Amino acid sequence: MKTLARAFLILSLTVIAPTQPLGADPVNDVRAALARLTAVEPIRATYELQQSVANEGKFGNDKYAGKATVELEGDGSGFRVIIPRPLLEQVEREQQAHAKSAKQQTPTVSALREIEPVDTSDAIDFAPTLLRLLDGAKLVSDAQSTWQGHPARALVLRVADRLDEDDSNKVKISENRLTLWLGPDLIPLGAEHIVNAKFSFLIFKGEQKQKKSWYLSHVADRLVRVRHELTRTSSGMGQKGNESVVALVHVH
Prior knowledge:
252 residues, alpha+beta, 10-stranded antiparallel β-sheet, 6 helices, 10 strands, 24% helix, globular
């Protein structure tokens, strides 16, 4: 009976204990885990982006929602965005309509502009984005948590503010917080980045609040951003703006 109880205890500790426990410097541990993801294995995925924009004020009123779907490819030689012919045809129809009447919205054009190679490449190689955020970040808390109903370790960090010298006296960042939910291999399962800032220039004042949420998946030697959610609100100089973006990645 004692032997059975001892075996059960050993099994329980084996299941609960993480395969790579965090050390004295958890930020460096996570950085090392991310650095091992070289993102050279071939991958192909469908990338769908939905954008919703609503602006109002004395400078103009705008409200529209658009969607664009493309194919992404990546391997050791580079990254490619493949825009299907039907999407290009829809873009052309919107541009022609807008040329005839400036009141005609171009929601697909706007959504496709969000699929810009430099920013979109992180959809199938997200590790470099997190590594940049971790550079200079300060650990605020480190605690056990859950992610989508499963045990995870949550790191909360204060991200380093990076402002141009000309903006340092005009922009004040009150919050720049990154939360990482880690799996047992220290690879993030999800992340959230919140930035709140106020700006002032002469008599003009305003503020912007932005929240990005990322759902992540470890695929081969890549960290794939399977879901990206952005909400951004801004106000100032008699204008208010709201934008939301949801981007989904379906790996083939």
